[in-house]
């Protein structure tokens, strides 16, 4: 059911899930030793690529996310250029909110802006659910991708309930999350009602992607690092856990990521993640130490090159990549990635060079 | 030598340092048990107070920082209103840069903006030094304060070399510090030259405040939490250590603070701090555990109520204050504070209530 790209050759029904059992990214995600160290980059599909900027010329962000042909092409671009081991669905964490009918836009240079912040019981009650047909364009794009990606796994994604809630409550990006935290603590019942609805929304969005053939998922709780461990466990974990539990039946690897979450790693894992994403602030071997401190088995981890360092000289980057790969061997499986998204000004040639180097290293 | 407030009654010479040996803030900072649990708030002098907004009406930020009478009055306002145990000099971390002749302004809603970012050897060489007479207005303000504050200690302050460098290199506030980190790693010699000059600048600014009678100082490395421990120790610690060492002869407590520095606490202490500021992300008893992990004596700490929670209901705030005071007893001394600055929308009545509650608690 293509909604905007009627000329696309979209497979008409859900394909059987591809058998990519030997794909390095999926092997590492399951805690195995892959044939090579897998690497992809958060935000690899996007602003750093000239071919992306050309394709997006004049097309608003949220329009591009609902054009199956365009979102598929943008998703493939970094795979084609860099030879990364995973394609991450080109989308945005507010896509399911927008699709469900929330009045939200992505303002260039600012980020998501919500017309009416959600702060009262009435606001929460009025928050719509997501029906799969509202994101059928995304499903169509995923089907195109499954058809085009060959042996490269497709990572679906959604924003986690806390991060989605923070945009809705604050009305846009925030450095303080003051309204979100105040609501969470002062009216826990209302908070849990909101976060529960957002968990359902994220879950519905991920199931659409998985039904259409995505091979793994990443749940982005980008701003969870603003919370204490206590807050995370009480107010956030149950809702993110609902999302992860709700896709367990697909049997695909589930990656969980947030920035500045060194204090929250065990809780991110306890929410039901198979792979814990780590930003650059702590070494991966230290992350593994924290994740196994209570005697748990060694986890799979993803990370953690500081995206800001992609602007440094090559010898600096090379040393960092080698260090991170070495530290990652402490984990059951390691997916090489950045510690946050690719910055818009990044030279794409540097990303390609990082991929080539990672592929030379011992997995 | 008043520069703008000629009608002010400014003591004409440096007063002898006041004897405030029993002031709770100074006792706690030295690791003793004060008569009551001392409390002050970062950014207490500023935007949350209507009397501040009235006084600043039509006066640009950087002008107000060079008006002795105005900066003294703004510094006293929160002491008068809340009964806090310390006054923190009303100033800004870019004040010494501006005074030295750097083309920098504070743009409302944005923050410091630098006309020409500092990124080359020429830029660094051209960076001026600070001469004490360039901040004589601040010294005059400090002398007024020493005269007016009675038994309340005055906390002087300066921005730390890394945070100052980040503004100069990025050209303004940043979320990524990409140019700063790239320069630091790619041209360490240039980085150290810049950070060394900024250490001299911060040191000169603090010595002016101490010569005029400040009773303690806080070095703000607000954004150091964006760095790894390795980066901090190699690129930042030597320069902040130079600042702390350079004021050791005054014998006043030295507080060191940055946001999101849970991974850096030992390094912040090792730079020469007597008191380590902690944000809300880790409990104070956990901070003390980290600071004593290698057998070091228990430190004095400052913190760590999340400023965002001042917008929650009073029972939430009360429970947080009691928890933090209890956790702070693990330290040799505890100065109650927020985990970052007062947010502009904070109800000042809530701050007063927090002070009253803290003063009821066992120190």
Automatic annotation (TrEMBL), chains A, B:
<comment type="similarity">
    <text>Belongs to the uroporphyrinogen decarboxylase family.</text>
</comment>
<feature type="binding site">
    <location>
        <position position="167"/>
    </location>
    <ligand>
        <name>substrate</name>
    </ligand>
</feature>
<feature type="binding site">
    <location>
        <position position="340"/>
    </location>
    <ligand>
        <name>substrate</name>
    </ligand>
</feature>
<feature type="binding site">
    <location>
        <begin position="43"/>
        <end position="47"/>
    </location>
    <ligand>
        <name>substrate</name>
    </ligand>
</feature>
<dbReference type="InterPro" id="IPR006361">
    <property type="entry name" value="Uroporphyrinogen_deCO2ase_HemE"/>
</dbReference>
<keyword id="KW-0456">Lyase</keyword>
<feature type="domain" description="Uroporphyrinogen decarboxylase (URO-D)">
    <location>
        <begin position="155"/>
        <end position="171"/>
    </location>
</feature>
<comment type="function">
    <text>Catalyzes the decarboxylation of four acetate groups of uroporphyrinogen-III to yield coproporphyrinogen-III.</text>
</comment>
<feature type="site" description="Transition state stabilizer">
    <location>
        <position position="92"/>
    </location>
</feature>
<protein>
    <recommendedName>
        <fullName>Uroporphyrinogen decarboxylase</fullName>
        <ecNumber>4.1.1.37</ecNumber>
    </recommendedName>
</protein>
<keyword id="KW-0627">Porphyrin biosynthesis</keyword>
<dbReference type="GO" id="GO:0004853">
    <property type="term" value="F:uroporphyrinogen decarboxylase activity"/>
</dbReference>
<keyword id="KW-0210">Decarboxylase</keyword>
<dbReference type="Pfam" id="PF01208">
    <property type="entry name" value="URO-D"/>
</dbReference>
<comment type="pathway">
    <text>Porphyrin-containing compound metabolism; protoporphyrin-IX biosynthesis; coproporphyrinogen-III from 5-aminolevulinate: step 4/4.</text>
</comment>
<feature type="domain" description="Uroporphyrinogen decarboxylase (URO-D)">
    <location>
        <begin position="38"/>
        <end position="47"/>
    </location>
</feature>
<dbReference type="GO" id="GO:0005829">
    <property type="term" value="C:cytosol"/>
</dbReference>
<dbReference type="InterPro" id="IPR000257">
    <property type="entry name" value="Uroporphyrinogen_deCOase"/>
</dbReference>
<dbReference type="InterPro" id="IPR038071">
    <property type="entry name" value="UROD/MetE-like_sf"/>
</dbReference>
<dbReference type="GO" id="GO:0006782">
    <property type="term" value="P:protoporphyrinogen IX biosynthetic process"/>
</dbReference>
<feature type="binding site">
    <location>
        <position position="92"/>
    </location>
    <ligand>
        <name>substrate</name>
    </ligand>
</feature>
<keyword id="KW-0963">Cytoplasm</keyword>
<comment type="subunit">
    <text>Homodimer.</text>
</comment>
<feature type="binding site">
    <location>
        <position position="222"/>
    </location>
    <ligand>
        <name>substrate</name>
    </ligand>
</feature>
